[in-house]
Amino acid sequence: MNRDTGFPAADAENDFLRARRRQVMSKLAAWMRRAPDDVNIMLPFDEVVAALGRAGERRLGLRVIRLDSIVGSVDRDREFDRRFRPTSGQVRERWQRLALAQRRGESVPPIEVYRIGDMHFVLDGHHRVSVAHALGLATIDAYVTEVLTRLSPEGVRYRGDLLVKDYRRIFLDRVPLTGDARRSIVLTDPEDYGELAEAIEAWGFRLMQDEGQFLDRVTVAHRWYDEEFQPVIRLLREAELVDEQTEARAYMSVACERYRLIRSHRWDDEVIGAIQRNKRR
To answer: Kind of pairing, strands 54-66 and 139-149?
Structure first.
């Protein structure tokens, strides 16, 4: 429990020391739990935008936002941890000056943030956010600019999540699916997206050879989904070969197994039977 001394300057100094102590203890606890390295690291704004693909932006003006929605920074991600606790004593002077102003009831200007989905990234006001956290506030005033992205930011919470999003964005450049088809192709291993894109491009090449005409990427993507992916998934479900994995992962697993066992790109009962027999071994 924090006890104020009644002297704002001394209390501001204690605020900073508590914040630093909590940051050190949190880092030590993460190390002892063998938690992933990115658990206490801010999300870098530029990396998030690069992974999701920028589609535009719009200014929303002055808003009240929740402090716990601020998860990243535009350019100061090394001075504070994920919860905006100072990572060193270098920010101490300015930090305590702001904490003292807050304790004296002085006016503090709004911060500036970018919004992506329900996440906020600080452009200006890192120290103000840190002090607000230390003083137990729940919200803060902010000038908000919303950044629109090509991929949904859903599922992004830590830096490690960006790799999957980045590979998915590249996959959709190569295989431009839309609507339900786009939403249904989900993989958890980022490298699987590259492997699947190559398989679809090879399928499209064989299709163009068979039909003797050039087909653009959009046409190949949707014909693969309608003529290859969906019928195969129906076969796999009937044969109970999907299990707990995603449909896209199930398709990739059996597509590779099919060619290894039978050296064929066709799908029929013989192929499914061979895959089932091999899985039972």
So the answer is: antiparallel
Long-range CB contact pairs, 163-167, < 8 A, 24+: 163/51, 163/190, 164/188, 164/189, 164/190, 164/193, 165/51, 165/52, 166/50, 166/51, 166/190, 167/191, 167/193, 167/194
| CA–CA dist 128, 95 (Å, integer) | 8
| Residue 52 belongs to domain with CATH number | 3.90.1530.10
Q: Does the reported pTM lie above 0.70?
A: no
Instruction: Tell me which residue of 4, 80, 90 sits closest to 42, measured CA to CA.
Output: 80
For residue 63, the cross-strand partners are 142
- Distances, alpha carbon 243 to alpha carbons 42, 85, 237, 248, 251, in Å: 36, 43, 8, 12, 11
Give the chain's domain count: 2
266: which 2 tokens?
């066709």
Distance from the Cα of residue 257 to its chain's centroid: 31
Cα-Cα-Cα-Cα dihedral sign, residues 66, 39, 76, 189: negative
- Mean pLDDT in residue range 48-70: 95
The residue among 85, 120, 149 that closes a domain is: 149
- Please answer whether residues 194 and 170 qualify as being in contact, where contact means their C-beta atoms are separated by less than 8 angstroms: yes
Q: What is the pLDDT of residues 91-110, one digit of tens each?
A: 888 888 888 888 888 888 99
* pLDDT given at position 31: 57
pLDDT more than 70, % of the chain: 80
Question: Are residues 129 and 172 located together in one domain of the fold?
Answer: no
Buried b (16+ CB within 10 A) or exposed e, 110-141: bbebbbbbebbbbbbbbbbbbbbbbeeeeebe
